[in-house]
Design a protein that fits this description.
Layout: H1 12-21, H2 31-42, H3 47-54, H4 58-67, H5 82-93, H6 98-105, H7 109-118
């Protein structure tokens, strides 16, 4: 294992696992790789596919694209307020679907489920 500042934060087995999955993990970007990345971005290749082809993590791909001005991360979702929390619980109790609630609040269905769980709403009602 190559000793460098980033590996100090990883257990050796985690580092080895990441290197096995991503051969270029924790290595500096080479000019030819950057050009290939730019080309892939221009062709609309998905980040997951770029990651696989370049042997780097998706996070590494996103950070490099961002530094090149080719990727803008999604803004963090707005914080839930008490009114929204009361409303989402009421909609759930009224039988609204997760998709309908997601559209109403401008969030994903997963975010709706997550908030309901956090609010300790019983999602497994028995009839």
């Amino acid at each position: 294992m190559t000793a460098n500042r980033k590996t100090l934060f990883l257990a050796p087995e985690d580092y080895d696992r990441l290197r096995a999955a991503y051969p270029k993990f924790n290595e500096p970007w080479q000019a030819d790789e950057v050009e290939e990345l730019k080309s892939m971005a221009a062709d609309g290749i998905a980040i997951k596919e770029m990651s696989s082809q370049l042997g780097r993590t998706a996070n590494s791909i996103k950070m490099k694209l961002q530094s090149l001005g080719l990727y803008v991360p999604k803004p963090a979702p707005k914080a839930w307020n008490r009114e929204d929390e009361e409303s989402v619980v009421q909609m759930y109790n009224d039988g609204a679907s997760f998709d309908d609630m997601a559209q109403h609040f401008g969030r994903t269905p997963g975010a709706i489920v997550s908030r309901l769980v956090k609010l300790r709403v019983n999602l497994f009602k028995s009839n």
